[in-house]
Specification:
The protein is an alpha+beta fold. 72% of the residues lie in helices and 12% in strands.
Length: 513
């Protein structure tokens, strides 16, 4: 198993020196898988040898029940199940975390080697993009790491790049320019290029692919149980439970997107109406200033007019007085004519002034009429905008309420989905651990029935049971458990239940034949 894991990691791009560093952790990975199979092989060999040497028959003839030689081995299975449980529950998560730390260290080494100072990190599964700086929306000096689970399979370095969304909205398009790619661990494989360069490369990253909650992989069983307890406590007052939380989240997210579009449309219209109100208010204020200034102007114009009229009246009175005086006194004709010309000239100027002031008053009154008309129109404009805002207010309140309800629905569904994921992870730790006792229970009757102590036969039986029955059932159970339509416990424990049922059937054959 250790060899198999190593070959698998080498194919994923891990180099030999890195593999040597994580070899102790790989041994821990292999141990929980190896223990059940080893116990099955040992049990089949042990009881096969007892049966082949007729010791089982001798025990029966001596009046000793088979349980006497079965119970100790069952307790051995329980003991190894507890050891495997401890490995799966506490040791392996810490080992995974150490491997992850080693991987992050390798990333930093690559960045340092190529003088890239990462100021920003973007996760777009299965890529991690490290960016040095951004200039005018263009990313500069990028390092892109492509992952397969915890291991880097490709490293791409580029001078610049950008991330955009496809027109359909279902893809993130990663475009890199002037760069090179590095294939880790490919030094000894001539079919895989170790390095290469490119002028421009594009990667399509689907949005809708489901990314597993990898943080649970590094979490111990006790912490997962604590998290589940906390989530269960939060869900205690929830009235609505969903059979398919993931489907509910997808459907509700789509509805929320539609509501957000409606809310944005309403907000845009309300914003336009508020802008109309603001413009109308400014125009009203402007026209009110014009009215105030025009009222002052009219008052001044009327004062000028009154002064001119008074001057005109005085001139005419003066002219009448002069005419009367001329009749009493004899004055030269030229002097009289000169005085009359001056009076007529002054009267003409005053009349021009009166005409000018009348025109100015008329224009001012026209301004007042126009200003009042503008104010009236702007008031109507404000009222219309206010009515628009009032009309949209209940709709917006309704959409806000729907948004809040749907958000709570998503939050509740997310917690229920998280609770299911936590339950799956709990049973994923428990079920393989107790396969030790299940394999021992099925190995005892198989060994007695085969009546062979041959190692190859025992290994063959073990591999048939493990590879053809147990692991396919485990894989099927995991697929079913991840589908919310199926219950978790039967799905995750199906392989062990199958082993127990077969062991019960076989025990009946050897005990009651």
């Amino acid at each position: 198993m250790l060899l198999g894991f190593s070959i698998q990691l080498l194919h994923k791009g891990l180099d030999i020196s890195s593999l040597l560093h994580i070899m102790p952790y790989l041994a821990l990975y292999a141990l929980p898988h190896a223990l059940p199979t080893s116990l099955l092989t040992a049990t089949v060999m042990t009881y096969g040898r007892l049966s082949a040497d007729n010791e089982i028959l001798a025990i029966k003839i001596a009046g000793v029940h088979l349980f006497k030689i079965i119970i100790p081995i069952v307790f051995t299975g329980i003991f190894f199940s507890l050891i495997t449980l401890y490995l799966n529950a506490e040791v392996l998560p810490k080992s995974y975390f150490q491997v992850r730390k080693y991987q992050e260290k390798a990333v930093k080494q690559v960045l340092a080697k190529h003088f890239i100072t990462a100021k920003k990190k973007i996760n777009v599964y299965p890529y991690q993009v490290y960016i040095s700086n951004v200039e005018h929306g263009i990313y500069k000096n990028l390092a892109v790491f492509e992952y397969d689970e915890d291991f880097i399979v490709n490293i791409i370095l580029a001078e610049e790049g950008e991330i955009s969304i496809s027109p359909e909205g279902d893809l993130a398009v990663l475009t890199l320019r002037r760069g090179e790619f590095i294939k880790p661990g490919s030094e000894g494989d001539a079919s895989v290029p170790q390095m290469g360069s490119f002028e421009e490369a594009t990667f399509d990253i689907p949005f809708k692919q489901r990314v597993r909650n990898t943080s649970l992989k590094y979490t111990t069983l006790t912490n997962i149980l604590a998290q589940k307890g906390a989530v269960s406590k939060e869900l205690k007052g929830t009235k609505e439970f969903f059979k398919d939380p993931e489907g509910i989240i997808d459907d509700t997210t789509g509805v929320i997107a539609e509501i957000n579009n409606q809310r944005k449309d309403i907000e845009r219209k309300v914003e336009t109406a508020n802008a109309e109100i603001e413009i109308a208010s400014k125009n009203i204020l402007k026209q009110e200033k014009i009215l105030k200034r025009t009222d002052i102007d009219i008052s001044n114009f009327e004062n000028y007019k009154n002064i001119a009229q008074n001057n005109l009246r005085k001139l005419r009175e003066e002219e009448r007085w002069n005419n009367d005086n001329n009749k009493r006194t004899s004055e030269s004709h030229d002097l009289e004519q000169k005085r009359e010309d001056e009076v007529l000239k002054k009267i003409s100027l005053i009349k021009k002034t009166l005409k000018r002031e009348d025109l100015r008053i008329k224009n001012a009154k026209r301004k007042i009429v126009i200003a009042n008309r503008v104010i009236k129109n702007e008031i109507e404009r404000k009222e219309k905008a206010n009515k628009t805002i009032e009309a949209f207010k209940p709709i917006k309140d309704k959409l806000d309420k729907e948004y809040a309800d749907l958000t709570k629905r998503i939050e509740s569904a997310s917690k229920q989905q998280l609770k299911r994921e936590l339950s799956i992870n709990i049973h994923k730790r428990l079920s393989p651990s107790f396969s030790c006792i299940a394999f021992i229970l099925i190995g005892i009757p198989i060994g007695i029935m085969t009546r062979s102590s041959n190692l190859l036969i025992s290994l063959g039986i073990s591999f048939i049971l493990v590879l053809l029955f147990y692991y396919p059932l485990v894989a099927l159970g995991l697929i079913l458990a991840e589908d919310s339509m199926y219950p978790i416990i039967p799905s995750m424990w199906g392989a062990n239940i199958f082993n127990l049922i077969v062991s019960v059937v076989l025990f009946r054959k050897i005990l009651y034949k």
